[in-house]
Amino acid sequence: MWQLHVDGPTRLVDALVSRLVDGSRVVVIGSRTSSGAAGKSQYAATKAAVAGLTRSWAIGLAPRRITVVVVAPGQPRRRC
Which residues contact 9 (CB under 8 A, 6 or more apart)? Predict the structure, then answer.
């Protein structure tokens, strides 16, 4: 699961970030399970890692006006 949910997006973003135009958008697929679910600990852990990566990328790429967001299907939208 780690390779699919964490390593895959990491390799993709790392490979493309230098080619992104300032002001670009990066969308990563998450899950509402990232906050935990009975019987899905490994899946939840990898999706929580994706959420943390996404926040870190967003902070790191903000000076270039590159927006990085995680979309978690089925999760209610949070107001900031």
Answer: 28, 50, 53
Residue listed under structure tokens 């990066």: 26
Binned average pLDDT, 10 residues per bin, the chain of 80 residues: 92 95 94 84 91 96 96 68
Q: Read out DSSP for the chain? A: -HIIIIIHHHHHHHHHGGGPPTT-EEEEE--GGGG--TT-HHHHHHHHHHHHHHHHHHHHHGGGT-EEEEE-TTPPPPP-
Q: What pLDDT does residue 78 have?
A: 62
Q: Are 23 and 37 in contact (CB under 8 A)?
A: no
